[in-house]
Amino acid sequence: MAISMQKMEKFKPHIAQVAVQVAYAGMNIITRVALVDGMNNFVFVTYRQIVATLVIAPLAYVLEREQRPPLTRSIFLQIFLLALCGITVNQNLYFAGLYYTNSTFASATTNLIPVVTFVMATVLRYEKVEIRKMRGKAKVVGTTICVGGAMVITLYKGPVIKLLTAYNSTANYNNILGSKRVLGCILLFASVFTWSSWITFQVPVAKKYPAELSLTALMCMLGAVQSGVLAFICEYKTPSVWSISWNIEPLSYVYTGVLCSAFAFFVQTWCVHTKGPVFAAIFNPLSTILVALLECLVFHDNLHAGSVVGAVLIVGGLYSVLWGKAKDNEIDQRGESEAEYSNNINIVGDVDDQQTAVDIKRPLLQTGSHD
């Protein structure tokens, strides 16, 4: 029982990241439908962050009341910039790009995040890459394979798998809006850069403010304020966009606010703090597989061979990167153990030396006292 609990504890970050990707896959489908039905992306991001704040702020206040560090002006400014980068700018770029393209393509572009994050973390020395070692090669090759697999899913359809052939839906939500497709691609690629920056720059902030729930609550709250200001500036001539249509919109606000902001941001922050930025980013390819499957089931799109080939590549690349990360962690833990053992030896040696010196001096002092 103790061994199984230790294994569960070891794989907690992995399980949490898989759950986040499942939530993101559902978000791509639900949000795409709502956007096509007329939901405003600026207002959507604002309402989403309001819901997320209402969910996670009470938990942060209760659970981290005693361990929450003081919020200095410098830390607040850094959290403000994190919210601006990872919520306000990133999400508005992403959902605008999602509207102009489709769910599978938007999800596939997020698979560039591991590459951009890997480069950023390496340049900033948050991530170690010993390219001559097998573990370093595994991380580089695995990340490349993940991206390649995601691109195969998007760019190569291949023949339809007859066993899973579905009928065509009359409501096709995956039509690309012709002339707007290039703009959508640019917006999605820009969102990749901002999301990678958010993951990377969380590392120093999380160390200065090691209260994951409170940090997530602050980012969601600031993101809601920032997004609200942006929405007001962009849509001040059409106040009707703030009204809630009682169709799929409320579901998209609650679903994305609770699962994709409150829960997902907490998990991402926690994983970045415990496992590093590349570990948090490398799970993104999983959502592409899930979106492709969901589009087949929900929108009745056909499943093509390209999706299967891409999925196999993504899983293989993911395993390669995680293997490299696991080897890095083993070496780090071994180094810490050796350093701790060496320190203990030095302390014992110093105590023995001091005791020997006292034993030598004590008779002299005693003799002197008799004189």
From TrEMBL:
GO CC annotations, alphabetized: membrane
Compartments where found: Membrane
Record keywords: Membrane, Transmembrane, Transmembrane helix
Membrane-spanning intervals of the chain: 15-36, 42-63, 75-99, 105-126, 138-161, 181-201, 213-233, 253-271, 278-300, 306-324
Membrane topology, as annotated: Multi-pass membrane protein
GO molecular function, one term: transmembrane transporter activity
Domain annotation EamA: ranges: 21-154, 183-322
Superkingdom of the organism of origin: Eukaryota
Family designation: Belongs to the drug/metabolite transporter (DMT) superfamily. Plant drug/metabolite exporter (P-DME) (TC 2.A.7.4) family.
Name by which UniProt lists this protein: WAT1-related protein
UniProt source species: Picea sitchensis (Sitka spruce)
